[in-house]
Amino acid sequence: MIHRYGEKGFNNDWLELIKHDPIHPKLKLLPRINGNRTVFVYSHDGIPQFMVCARLGNKLPHNISEVLSDDGYNSSYDVNYGIFYSIFRLPGAAMKGGGKHAIKELVEYCKVNGVNGFFTLSPIPFLRDTFSNKPSEAMVRHYLESLQGPVEKFHLGNGARIQNINFDADMSALRYSESWGIMVNYDYNHYQDDALPEA
User: What pLDDT is recorded for position 76?
Assistant: First the structure.
């Protein structure tokens, strides 16, 4: 079941679980729940399994600065895009295929509430382990499609598509050390349920 921060059924104690985010470990709580950003928790039998940090807005962000900015957002779901910029398994999660179900239910939840497009802004954690120099866009795309790393394996295995390769998308020390700051928008608008892995 999907729970959105601020709505009935969301346990505010779950916000403490943000400290387990391996994707944006230094991003504090307030920017995640301020303006057009929110947090979803997928639970099963009352136990939180996955957390998704999302941005709801009228533009598709291509870098982390755009994720953390506002673009005329209001509190309704009258927006064009849901951007999932952090998706991670929670401690104690034991449900098989939890990632699969979390994404599926979140997309369905957002569709019911008027969101039209679903994308991620995702890191490429091991890109620099493969290339000694910054690769071209074509080289990055080929690397992603080869499913060498866990993030691309998760998203492309879920049936998502590569939408954009974004250079200088996050120039923090962590992202620069991983991938020269390159990040990816994955498109979840056309995924097929039978393509979803047991994540």
Answer: 52
If we measure between CA atoms, which residue out of 39, 18, 40 comes closest to residue 28? 18
Residue 87 CA to residue 101 CA, distance in Å, equals 12
Same domain assignment for residues 116 and 151: no
Model pLDDT, residue 180: 98
Residues 132 and 116 in one domain: no
Taking the mean position of all CA atoms in its chain, how far away is CA 47? 21
Lowest mean pLDDT, pick from 82-86, 116-120, 139-143? 116-120
Q: How many domains does the chain have?
A: 2
**What is the spatial distance between Cα 136 and Cα 142, in angstroms, rounded to a whole number?**
10
Distance (Å, whole) CA 99 – CA 44: 12
Q: Is the pLDDT confidence value at 46 over 90? A: no
